[in-house]
């Protein structure tokens, strides 16, 4: 027992009585599944527990490289394939021809259909398992499987088409004209409304189903004059960037709510509105509240607007790089940026790659701080200095943009020294007195 606990293969040197002992063999196969080959045939025929433990340790123990003399059952093989579907690749052909085992294998990995014997390839039960996988592709298998003979098999067609709608090109006429099923397909695959085999390309209800699933499906509506106000609103409410596919007259009509819905969904859709509407401060504010980086699409004068920039930064501090030079050195806005980007003295991961010299006008910030020497509290000054230091570090904490804190300190070195002296005196007054003496 001690020997097999150390190495299961030691079972081969045990007496026949020990190789027939279920407890000893269980310990051996826990250490090494190959120890099962040294157990007696009598034990292998009578003990499922030993088999299951060996398969759990190494599912490939049922592969064709082992000769089990009739002690291996289909239940053992199915358990092994369930543990690891790829065991099917190394099974003896007699097990591969078992439909239940083949189904179990392709349920775990549909690509194992490559290893299924030719006689099972066109079995409906097996194909249902294959087409049920999300990554299944009709184009990859149309040369290997006689799909056309299953065009009237609704279960295969429906399950398969909901994972790869290309299968609909060979579906029966009845299924191609099934309106409710067409709605299910375009809700998941909006671009299908543009396909030649799709029978409902001009059906407003089906088009709306597509737009509810993906607003960008508006691109595939064949005729621009078929796009209704309801379709446009549905599309941009789902994905604001779909505004680019809305007919120009609808985009230029301010009172229809389409532009507002698009901007509320994705502020970057501001790029698709008219120049006149982009000059409207309210539209720009709506856009930057939805996506701060929409500030880059705003007119130059609004990028110098304190309120607009504040709204943009509050949504996304990275938007600071699109603000005017003046506001990129504003003490209040820079403080807000640091508050949003830094958590407990650590720069948040999503901002590590930011180029802070572009994000913040450090020379102007330093000048503004120096100009407010008397009005600014020490706490605010230290917060700004710490922000500059933290933001100058790379993803492992080393300062690789030393010019950022140095530029800030160049204008304010005297105040920094005074603050540190104050801190030193507060925490070590006796040392300071001794030094004076």
Task: Describe the 3D structure.
The chain is built from 26 helices and 2 strands. By secondary structure, it is mostly helical. The longest helix has 25 residues, at 403-427. It is flat and about 95 Å long. The mean pLDDT is 85.
Helix-strand layout with pairing:
Blueprint: H1 2-6, H2 16-19, H3 22-31, H4 41-46, H5 48-57, H6 74-83, H7 93-96, H8 99-108, H9 124-131, H10 138-141, H11 154-161, H12 173-176, H13 179-188, H14 204-213, H15 229-238, H16 248-252, H17 258-265, H18 275-278, H19 281-290, H20 306-315, H21 331-341, E1 342-343, E2 346-347, H22 356-359, H23 362-371, H24 378-391, H25 403-427, H26 429-436
Helix pairs in contact: 3-5, 5-6, 6-8, 8-9, 9-11, 13-14, 14-15, 15-17, 17-19, 19-20, 20-21, 21-24, 23-25, 24-25, 25-26
